[in-house]
Fold this protein.
Amino acid sequence: MNLGLCRACAGPVECVNVLWLLVSAFIVLADQATKHVVSRLVAPYEVVPCLGGIVRITNVRNSGAAFGVLHNGRPMLIAIAVVVTLAGAYYLLRWPRRWWVQRLGVSLSLGGTIGNLIDRVMVGSVFDFIDLGIWPVFNLADSAIVIGMALILYSVLFHPSVKEE
C-alpha cells in the first residue's frame, strides 16, 4: 500500500525510507536558512545576547572540524563529508528496516553533514553562530550531527537487534 505519499516508490518500505531522507532535507534547509538570516543580521564577530544572555548569537567561521581541529584540512573534511553523506543515504534507502531511533539518528546526522558540507564547498569554512559561552560556537547542523550520533549510539547500546516497525 503506497498511500500516495510517494508515487515513485515501489512500495511502503521504499516510501518510508524516502521520508527519512526528507527529515535530512529539512535539517539542511533549516540549517542553511538560519545561517543565511544570521549572516545578514549579525556582523562578523559581533555578539548579540539572547534569552537574557544565556545564548549569544555570534557570527564566526570555522575552517576546521569540531573544536577547530584540522583547520587547514578542507579537502580531507570535504572527502569525509562526502563519504558520510553517501553512506548515510545508502543506509536510509537500502538497508533493512531498523528501529526508528537509529534511522532518525542517521537522518539527523546526514542532514547536518550536508549542511556543513555546503558551507565548506561554497565558502571554504563552516558558519557557526550559536554561542552558549561554555562550549565552542556551533550551528544547527552541528546540533543535528551530535543529536543524531547520540541516537545512533543509544540504539546500538540499548537496542542492537534489527527490529521491524
About this structure: The radius of gyration is 18 Å. The chain is about 55% helix and 10% strand.
